[in-house]
Automatic annotation (TrEMBL):
Coiled coil: none annotated. Gene3D superfamilies: Immunoglobulins. This is NRCAM protein. It is found in: Cell membrane. PROSITE patterns: IG_LIKE. The keyword Signal applies. It comes from Chloroceryle aenea (American pygmy kingfisher). InterPro entries: Ig-like_dom, Ig-like_dom_sf, Ig-like_fold, Ig_I-set, Ig_sub, Ig_sub2, Neural/epithelial_adhesion. The lineage of its organism: Eukaryota, Metazoa, Chordata, Craniata, Vertebrata.
Length: 131
């Protein structure tokens, strides 16, 4: 079974394509099956290629992080490998700040919500000077 050993790790960026490969040898030729431990493979974004040797997930997000197991099985036995996947993300807007027009003495609220992995720090500046 390739990759060798029982576990490996993979880091992917949010929005990209995750490719996991598992190649097994044996006679009779083993059938490969993929599972996500503790969850489901994303139904509309998951594709099996190269006779199920390659698991492809498009447009990955942080929710796709986790342990993926490939299992190779034939009539004489089985082998498996677990790939621990971490999805990292550059900062992105959940709610971007919008322009705010106020009259003198009027109160207003600016909302800034961002996410990423690792979690981004948010700083507020007025005319380039930290508030």
């Amino acid at each position: 079974l390739t990759p060798t050993g029982s576990t490996s790790t993979k880091v992917e960026l949010r929005g990209s394509v995750l490719l996991l490969e598992c190649i097994a040898a044996g006679l009779p030729t083993p059938v490969i099956r993929w599972i996500k431990e503790g969850g489901e493979l994303p139904a509309n974004r998951t594709f099996l290629e190269n006779f199920k040797k390659t698991l492809k997930i498009i447009d990955v997000s942080e929710a796709d992080s986790g342990n993926y197991k490939c299992i190779a099985r034939n009539t004489l036995g089985s082998a498996h490998h677990v790939i621990s996947v971490t999805v990292k993300a550059a900062p992105y807007w959940i709610t971007a700040p919008r322009n705010l027009v106020l009259s003198p003495g009027e109160d207003g609220t600016l909302i800034c919500r961002a996410n990423g992995n690792p979690k981004p720090n948010i700083s507020w500046l007025a005319n380039g000077v930290p508030i």
